[in-house]
## 1
Amino acid sequence: MAVKDRVPMREQDPKVRIKNFDEVALGYTEEEAILEASRCLQCPNPTCVAGCPVHVRIPEFIKAITERKFEEAYKIITSTNSLPAVCGRVCPQEEQCEKNCILNRIGKPIAIGRLERFVADYALQNNIEEEVKPEKKNKKVAIIGSGPAGLTCAGDLLKMGYDVTIFEALHALGGVLTYGIPEFRLPKRIVEAEIERLKKLGAKVETNVVVGKTVTIDELMEEEGFEAVFIGTGAGLPRFMGIPGENLNRVYSANEFLTRINLMKAYKFPEYDTPIAVGKRVAVIGGGNVAMDAARSALRLEGVEEVIVVYRRSKEEMPARAEEIEHAIEEGIKFEFLANPIRINGTEDGWVKSMDVIRMKLGEPDSSGRRRPIEIPGSEFTMEVDTVIMALGTSPNRLIPSTTKDIQVQKWGGIITDEDGRTSRPGVFAGGDAVTGAATVILAMGAGKKAAKAIDEYLRNKK
Amino acid sequence: MRKRVLRMYRIVRKEVLNPAVKLMDIEAPRVAKSAKPGQFVILRIYEKGERIPLTIADYDPGKGTVTIVFQEVGKSTKLLGTLNEGDYIADFVGPLGNTMEVPKGAKKILGVGGGVGIPALYPKLKMLHQEGYKVEAILGGRSEEYVIFRKEMEAVCDKVYYATDDGTLGKKGFVTDVLKDVLENDKEVDFVITVGPVIMMKNVCKMTKEYNIPTIVSMNPLMVDGTGMCGACRIEVGGETKFVCMDGPIFDGHLVNFDLAMTRLNMFKKQEKISLELYEKEHGGGHHGR
Ligand SMILES: Cc1cc2nc3c(=O)[nH]c(=O)nc-3n(C[C@H](O)[C@H](O)[C@H](O)COP(=O)(O)OP(=O)(O)OC[C@H]3O[C@@H](n4cnc5c(N)ncnc54)[C@H](O)[C@@H]3O)c2cc1C
Ligand SMILES: Cc1cc2nc3c(=O)[nH]c(=O)nc-3n(C[C@H](O)[C@H](O)[C@H](O)COP(=O)(O)OP(=O)(O)OC[C@H]3O[C@@H](n4cnc5c(N)ncnc54)[C@H](O)[C@@H]3O)c2cc1C
Ligand code: SF4
Ligand code: SF4
Ligand code: FES
């Protein structure tokens, strides 16, 4: 059986988009969405749904699209996924829902993510809202951290009628969605709109509160009357390599680089006050989404001529989303595979001048199942770069466990919970990157959902 | 643009301490309640502003206010200086960083402060004084009017020495010139706390090392989030990389790589200049508020 091709999504021309921070992918029109939706076989036993961590009812919402019932499609999606405009854009679909689509056997899978995005954008443009009027329960729950885990947990609890306050350390909500993922991949107006919906549901918000410093969990529970707490503080602590020269000027962690650009809008300096300093040749170390985001952001800054991603494995092992790797290549990002920095060299007055790198080869698979990179002795070479961005991954911050009674953590800092997000301390729940280490938006949301259920159960049984 | 309705941070008192330095009490009850000596805040003046760190110079949990003292050196601090009592600051987060520890058995503590390091030193000496330690201080600045917080310091110190570049107050010279005299003559001093320009802290530490007196410093690198998320604030202490906002700002002064710290403060010099020039052009340079 022949299948029709996937309907392509319009994108900004690479030559144009490397000069701006506007969104790269432009979304489907109604007609395009209907055309793509009509390719779906409406499988009676849809394998795609099993691939989605929050089990979006995929064939149902796709069917609604073919019938032009976009509002209904939206309600179907939001019955299990509270941030569809975000997920449609940033989920690693090729590893999840789309990987399991039956059409993979004979052609390209349904563009589930793009359709989800279409429906969510339609709802935002047309001010479609979920109608919920829950019965108020006079019980206060504190949500710590406003990334996807915290926002999802808050949303579900609000819909159940709880009195929810979100505490966020930064001045803006959204977690990585706001400070990490760039505008050209996830416009901040989308994140803000999702947050506005939560506020309409009655969420109270306190920004500029670093729990563990400004106030502790013990104080929230013992003095401020919060009966349950959800910790969704993410995994924000950046790793460095520990090689010589890493503290030279113009060596950044990807987190610093992206925070300056996304949260502080340094790409609009001097209109915005936060600066960013780059030279002409930028090296980005790493191979994940964070590395792609840092590289593509760097390329868009004034004065940057060349951006090279240095990754110790080969292209096949890169953990970044396939679509983002393709976008990076289209935009002219260069890649130095099977290479690992060993030293950053500086000028006399402390600025990056070049970077020494060693060649790697792939050995036996390691515990992650990926082939382990091994140094090739004597293969060192020097790259002339003046800016280095370390995108090596992040781990959970220990601030909360170290200031809260009875919260157990793993050796690497992850908070220990059961399946449903219960920590070792009654009334305290956790989920998202703070528990799993750096993972994905949809997994963090799934954890927030499970925890909301567990919190509800806990508060119902608590007398 | 995000609307802020809930918590804004009101300026309840403003004082001009000298032509370059201002003091403000900011309404921030949560910060005031949890603050400890040595800690700092990060504030953002308005929607397009940057996040700048300032030391907590004093705090009043009863009134819910936090005192900051800042020197106008660039766009953000100059802009802050134009605000008045009753105005609001968009964001004010803290208290951040660690607090100091005094070695067991220490009896007589010497504080050495320069410029806006003096108000930053103040809450530490105040607490030690209240805890019953003998406390003395050496304070310095360009000239008499730059040596601020004298009344406050004299109230919590058994003795205060002064040093000014031009000799208008105390000894003519640097705080280290006075420090040498004190350490030569007073063998009781067994702990030094120094806060001020990096170069001053470096020289103080060099001297106290010769006399083998444990010394702590309060570092002031560039920062963004102040919660350990970015690493902008990293310095080297004893050969290891540390994040000042989480591991500091207080460190063993004999282990800090001050030269690296000074280099890293230059990272955005070019951009800071652009920002300041643009600001002064728009606001008719030298505007200092009331
Ligand atoms: C650059 C980048 C690109 C990414 N791209 C993708 C992608 O394309 N697809 C994908 O699925 N995933 C992607 N990820 C991963 C994904 O963003 C994360 O897995 C997800 O955001 C985790 O959600 P979270 O809610 O657990 O934590 P976070 O999003 O990290 O949010 C945690 C929040 O808690 C706040 N916080 C921390 N400590 C405290 C405290 N003590 N008190 C108060 N608040 C606190 C933080 O400021 C933050 O706002 C990317 C990550 C990065 C960094
Ligand atoms: C933990 C901590 C506590 C601090 N406490 C105080 C305080 O109590 N009072 C106070 O006046 N300042 C304090 N600072 C310094 C203050 O944050 C900076 O002066 C301020 O951010 C400058 O912003 P700006 O935009 O006005 O100037 P910019 O345009 O950023 O800089 C102008 C000039 O000041 C220098 N500069 C910039 N940042 C710093 C810095 N962090 N330290 C020293 N020099 C700098 C620049 O190199 C440049 O020459 C503290 C810094 C830290 C990290
Ligand atoms: S939430 Fe993510 S995984 Fe689930 S259907 Fe949507 S795009 Fe696919
Ligand atoms: S598996 Fe593919 S074709 Fe089948 S219902 Fe899901 S999306 Fe449609
Ligand atoms: S200021 Fe970002 S980690 Fe310290």
## 2
Amino acid sequence: MSLERKVISGRAVPIRGNEVDTDRIIPARFLKEITFERMGDFLFQDARFNEDGSEKKHPLNDAHYKGANIMVVENNFGCGSSREHAPQSILRYGIVALIGESFAEIFAGNCKALGVPTLSANKSDIQMLLATVEADPSATLTLDVDSRTVRIQSNGKEDVIQVTLPDARRQSFLDGSWDELGTLKGNLDKIKETAASNLPYFTNFT
Amino acid sequence: MSKGTLYNKVWDRHKVTTLPSGLDQLIIGLHMIHEVTSPQAFAMLKEKGSKVAFPERTVATMDHIVPTDNQFRPFFDTQAELMAKTLEENTKEYGITFLGLESGKQGVVHIVGPENGYTQPGMTIACGDSHTSTHGAFGALAFGIGTTEVRNILETQTLALSLLKVKKICVNGTLRPGVTAKDVILAIIAKLGVKGGIGFAYEYTGDVFENMTMEERMTVCNMSIEGGARIGYINPDQTTYDYIKGRDKAPSAENWDKAVAYWESIRSDADAVYDDEFHLDAADIEPMVTWGINPGQGIGITENLPNPAGMSDADRETAEEAYVHMQLQPGTPIKGTKIDVAFIGSCTNGRISDLREAAKIFEGRKVASHVQALVVPGSQQVKAQAEQEGLDKIFIAAGAEWRGAGCSMCLAMNTDKLKGDQISASSSNRNFIGRQGSATGRTLLMSPAMVAAAAINGVVSDVRELQEVTA
Ligand code: SF4
């Protein structure tokens, strides 16, 4: 898959709730694995399943949303623990972009590091979007990172909403540079120079 | 944009360059790692055959999965054992200091860093853990990161970051008796909300913070992230320097003055410019208790549970959800709510001063018969100190369990968990649904002394009533 994330289209799954924290996205007891491989299996575990393993009513258990690759959420999504397991579980479940009213910072940064855009829109647009995909799970969304818009097509109708995405993030999705490691590594000499000239504590103030 | 603040000064010192994306590349002076969020990062390194660029600037310990009842190896839990082993092997392979169980220095990462002198003013500090904000108590820029960023630090000692705004949080005046650092931060979050700090670093200033000990300052900064602020800090002063002096990794005596000069140079200027300010009067704060499912849903111990009807839309929805989960009623007092479990510990309140405060309440009293009380020191050094002072005997005599160092029931990745819909009085930092290990479990956050009072009475109590009796 190319690293560029210019346009993402597909169907969306609605996840209602404010302040959905990362403990809810993936409860701590599933963090006891030393790889992220199985994290997709545990996405929203406690919201989706009863203790006896039977299913609760949840959009991710609803066959209509099977195959959705976009998640629509409300505000301060991903607050709490910095665990990258949360965006990993979302990505590995098959979600490649999120649209919401707002996202917690560490969470949005972790998503970015995985190449997953988190787009913000105002409350009324998010409510419209949630209502649309709840009424019509087959609605198609087209996220355009460049123009910062989302086009929604449902039952022959079309809407376009504006979304926000910080400039640096937008740029990194457009040119595929969201994994910064290579860029950071290119400056190793400069890193050593900066530390030597600016940071006396690197040598314990000798 | 802010100017002349500690945040700006430390940022500028650590800046390598502005990247093509517009983000700044910042050096991370201290990198702390633990067993849960680092193995995947090391795996990424191994896959590519990469090296750790500055192994001496990373330090590791083990806390989340460590059982606090039986710490003999191998751990009974095979997943926990594998995690422990993986961290041991990774740190050995890459030449990273590891403060493991045999070192006598193991503990919750945010307690271990300061108590060994790793944490110092004017540093940038990162760890794959959101409560890294704790280290801001020393006047460092300290924040939580994800695992991919852990990898970036291992390979380059830097991160690509965007500048935050700075909000000055002023609390002036004198705290009333029985009101602690935990109550101050819970009151701030209750006022500003859990989203109030998004996009900001919090600078805590004013009499109240200046008069606090380092341990109290750590409690405050620890919970910055619960208010949405990825960073919270307090300008370093004599209290800070006195705390650091003589610790294991502190600057040596002959370099001490140079260190202090650097630390003084990064303090916020008197005429620094802030993006926003918030003021709170110390006298208005009383012992706090959370009643809901996020740390912003807190009230004073003498208050009644709030009515969702009067709230804004988003707050009302969250409050309604909280009342369903917590099985509590609006309009009723929080005081008197029956508890099942009392937990004293965590990186918020697992330090020696917290245990001393709790011990004062436990001394000569008994834990209510229906309550399970756990006292969990934040580190092996805290444990040793507490035992030297005889605090362990007080806890045990009161009927509480005295455990080994670890995160314990703060997040229940180990054997300590709530069962069913048990309700716990907890000195930790998160009351999220499922946080303490049961999907239906319920958490009331409060100070360690308040937890002790709840443990004794078996119900949420006003600790000041017990303190009066003691005094
Ligand atoms: S004590 Fe709790 S909050 Fe602190 S590091 Fe451990 S799990 Fe995280």
## 3
Amino acid sequence: MHHEILLLALPIAVSFLVPLLARRSAAVARWIAFLAYLAALAYTLALFPSVMASARAVIVAGWLPPLGIALFLSPLSLGAVALVYLIAALTALYNLSSPGENKRPEGGRSARGVALQALFVLGGVGMVLTADLFNAFVFLEIAGISAFALVASGRPLQSGRAAAANVPVTSVEKKSAAAADSKTASAEPPAEAAPSAVSTSGSLRYLVAAQTASLFMLLGIGLLYSATGLLTLPSLVSHPALKSSFGLLTALLLLFPVLLETKIVPLNFWVGRAYAGAPAGFAASLSGIGATAAAVLLLRMLSVMGSGSAFAGTAGELRGVLLLLGSLTVLVGETAAFREADLKKVLAWSSAGQMGVVLVGAALPAGEAAAWVLFFLASHAVAKALLFLLAGFFAARAGTNRWKAMKGLGRLHPLAAGMFTVGALSLMGLPLFAGFWGKLGVLRAVFSSGGPAVLAAAAILLGTVAEGVYFLRIAHSLFEAPEAESGTPEAEREAPTVGSGKPARAPVPAGVLLPALILAAAVLLLGLRPSLAMRVIAPAARELVSPDEQYAQKILPSGASR
Amino acid sequence: MNALLLPLLALPAIGIVSLLLFRRARVLQWLLFLLAAGALVATAALLYGRWELSAGLSLGVATLGFRNTPLGWLFFAFSSGLTLFIALFSLSYNDRRHSSGVAPLWMILLAATMGIFFAGDWIAFLVAWEIMGWTSFFIIAHGRESSFRASIYYYTLSLIGTAALLAALFTVWRLTGTLDLDGSLAALAALWTAQPGAVTLVALLLAVSFLAKSALGPFFMWPALAHAEAPDDFSAYLSGVMIKYGLFALVRLVLPLFGPAYAGATVQGTPVFLYILGWIGGLTAVWGTLLAVRENDMKRMMAYSTVSNMGYILVALSVNTVFGVAAALFHIFNHMIFKGTIFLSLAAVKYRTGERQLHRLGGLAYRMPVTFFAFLIGIIAAAGIPPMSGFASKWMVIQSLFSRRMLLLAVPVLFASTASFMYLYRGLHGIYLGQLSPRFRDVRPAPPLQMLAMLLLMLAVYAVGTFPGLALLPIRDALAGLQEVIGAGGVGSQIPVTLGTIMGVSSRINLTTVSFVFLGSFIGVLVLYLLGKRRSRVEWLDTYTAGEDPAEWNMTPEQYHYAYRFYEPFEKMINPLLERLSLERAYESLARSFRRLSGSVARALSGGGAGVAVALLALAVILIVGVAR
């Protein structure tokens, strides 16, 4: 039996074992999950040397495609899997601790939540590893359903004002928008709905959107199968061309759910509430694992459509549209994040904006930006996970998700606030941090393609300006003195010591500090020594640019495709 | 690991270690900072003359190249010297009450500054530029909300500048295929005949970026916020060193494009592009002066004065001759020194009194004599009066205009220069002369270390004023290598200068003689004063209200103080102009519209079923239109 199947088997095992073993205590469940992800990460890293030497296919249970499942282990897929398991392990570590006053195990902390989270991880890993479109669809569905359940399980924070704080601003905003100035931007809205309205409505939106998109993909798969009899990506590469309009339609249908998962305009209306309602640990997974895995799948599909002869010419026609959608996503994402009062929503919209940059990079001809898009994706996954975890911690300490209420928390927990700043600066694309190189690489490729791509570059640069302002606003407010500024210029600026008369706050729990430290260290390391990641990313990019080389020879012995 | 690379790497490392480990050890942090500043001065001494030195920092995906050039060395040496004096001051200034905690970030900023000045390729320049940006943001904001607002204003403009810089960088890369600074600029300059539009675009983008950083043209308003709200010792660094980055980059990156290879239109001998920049500089000089006159806050006033001085420098650069560049560099150096002196004395006043408003101060000369002298020397230099250094550089700026017969542009420069005396003297009188408020009766003079820093700076101002060659000779040597890059030959291609004399187009002045004449007269007057009749001390009386109570007229004593809104008649004259042409209002309305847009976008995308339907419809339209072609 192929031992590589462990990559998929471990999360399945967790999701099945946890309800059996953790009847009494959710802590057992959380530990099982953490250890399993850690083992999976170690296993993935152990597989690296052999896969880097030569990519290989794993046919599960001996059933050849197109009936069976074929896993394709290459630098790209294994690298993505490693990233997914890293974030899963760190999120599980985060869930092990209880950073707030929240006694009831919510969301990802209950046994049920742990099982669902394992399924989500399975979905993410699967859609990256598989070489078959139908399998990708199945894994997308698994991820979608578990995400829906997990988002819906988010509970508001215990303190009273949190109930109102988690309700999204609706009509009140409209009335005050006309006369609004920045200082009075977020007036307390009246509680228009029940406390868990955000979670429920967010998850419902996500469900409706994801299921509709999945329906389209199923349609596309059906059409593709009826026309070609194939579903495996590699075989599509060497298949004779489909009729152009048919190929186009199929390609569009296939891309729908992936675009939705990666928050591309206009399919990202679910982003705000879903992230706001999700528990902090899962929000980190949703962004770090979900969006990343979907983006990798998107990149592979686009590379096949670009070079593959089954979709000959499709990518050329899609390229302009994808560039436009990507630019719009960047602009929309950064603009929407600017005024948000809820920190999780800010981070969610920022994610959308970054995915827009990924799409712009992916839409460039000849895959010029492939390596840098992957680097950008990796740095985004790490930085965003860091930000979401710390946002959860700060929200628990402040009792609300509103970032203005978190003012001054940085003085009590300077290390945590410092790491938050590191993550924010990385997303802004500033040097000494990972995001700089990714953004620089993508921008360079955009500029050198010339023509309409320059408009995309303008969108990305504008997005950077907006992003800088709102991230620095939040990062700095953590360090501001929480008392009102008095008239005397000699306000006390040193951090209050424990003996200063204020009640000493509990220190940052290890379960929050450790993952945050690891992720922050990764951000700094990638920023100072980007070549470390390029060792894996360079071959992965080659695979994206010329998929036929890798796929056709490595996967599928000649008799496999009909 | 040579003298270039070691400080570049060591400084941020020490800064980060200091940030993480020494958060509570305030004195240690500032001591480290002082040592770092000293090390930089030593590095400058080591690097002098070794123009072949270069270093590369390999990061696998890119190599950051650094090169020791005369121009970069000049800026580095000047700024390191000023930083050392400020570091001396800061060690004393940052006691328990006033500590701003910015020393670690400032150390990283020092490294970024060095990186900017010694950058050998575009990526190194960009990396250093960006690091400078975010560290300065956090330093200016230093954890206070009012300072945050000022800092984010500055940083937004800086981000816009960075976007333009990125666009220019990639355009240059695409056009020339190389990232090496000198190589790509030479290749770009050679493209004037083939692709004038592209080169102009690059020049424009770079100009936008650097004008934003140096607060020129439409970006004049951020120093008043940022310099004023920053920690007081850092304001001296902001006004002294940081605002010069844009001008350095203009000389390094933009002027070479307009060298001998320039093949476009010229106005009065200088390229059109530079001529327009010159007028922007002149108008900025006037604008800065007018706004400074209105100010009641001493730091904001001096910030506008800085803006005004940047205008003079840009004017000198626009004549595109070696003499002009020398005048600009000389004024940069002088401005660093005298503005540093002024801001440090303001910091000392604030340290002792806690006040920044002019009408609440007064008479402090009797309590803080050294601080008073420092400010006095500083404003004499700022006004351009001999024997202080400001005179020589302003004279050379105007001479450079004469060399191109650009007499029209000399008008705003002379106006601004003369009118500057209005606010400079007001600053002196408002803070140091006049009546001492009873609140400050027990104010002690500045601490010894602060006085030392101010004394050294005063000495520097006077020394350069007496011996302008001290600064001009290094400048001339540095520019010797640039002669083939900037307009060669013709008028103004030499910088005749000796230790004590400056020479221009229309005349020459032996400043040493002038200075000694002033010194002689001063000593003569002092002797007369001491030999004069006996003086008796008289207690001050609060007489300016002549016994009336201002509350009877619904005024507070402060509003009735003579120093409050001192120039009200002048303000009434210029206010209509300033109101109508308010760029701040334009920016403010732009920011407001963006905020409103952000709210609508977020709401539109969170809306219910209607939003979803619109979204899907929009997608369908985009796909059909985009693909059906």
